[in-house]
Amino acid sequence: MIYTATLNCYAVDKIGDYIFRYDTIGYRIVALEIEDMDEAIVYLKSKGVEISMGPVNLGNSKRAYIKDPDGLSIELRQ
């Protein structure tokens, strides 16, 4: 089983108690490679995770998206 992930990188400024995050720098998504999309979707839904998009069949692969607690997308790839 092989897993891959993409690291998110942001430029951040803090002014007082407010944090400004510049999403134009670095990556804004984590991608996880999974073996079985259908099984992963069933498992995630059973844990209360909402699927924000997909799954979409792209021929040789499938893609779906969920969100982390901060609202950033997590891509699931098969």
The CATH class label is Alpha Beta
Q: Give the H and E element order.
A: EEEHEEE
- Spatial separation of the terminal alpha carbons: 12 Å
Helical fraction: 10-25%
The residue ranges in which pLDDT falls below 50 over 5 or more consecutive positions are none
Output the structural class: mainly beta
Largest sheet: 4 strands, mixed
**Count of DSSP H/I helices:** 1
Mean pLDDT: 78
- Principal-axes geometry comes out as globular
Question: What does the secondary structure layout of this molecule look like, with pairings?
Answer:
Layout: E1 11-15, E2 18-22, E3 30-33, H1 37-46, E4 53-57, E5 62-67, E6 73-77
Parallel strand pairs: 3-6
Antiparallel strand pairs: 1-2, 4-5, 5-6
Q: Your description of this structure?
A:
- By secondary structure, the protein is mainly beta.
- The chain has one domain (11-77): 2,3-Dihydroxybiphenyl 1,2-Dioxygenase, domain 1, CATH 3.10.180.10.
- It has 1 helix and 6 strands, in the order E-E-E-H-E-E-E.
- The protein has one helix at 37-46; strands spanning 11-15, 18-22, 30-33, 53-57, 62-67, 73-77.
- A hairpin with a 5-residue loop joins strand 5 and strand 6.
- The longest helix is centred in the middle third of the chain and has 10 residues, at 37-46.
- The chain is globular and about 50 Å long.
- The model has no long low-confidence stretch (mean pLDDT 78).
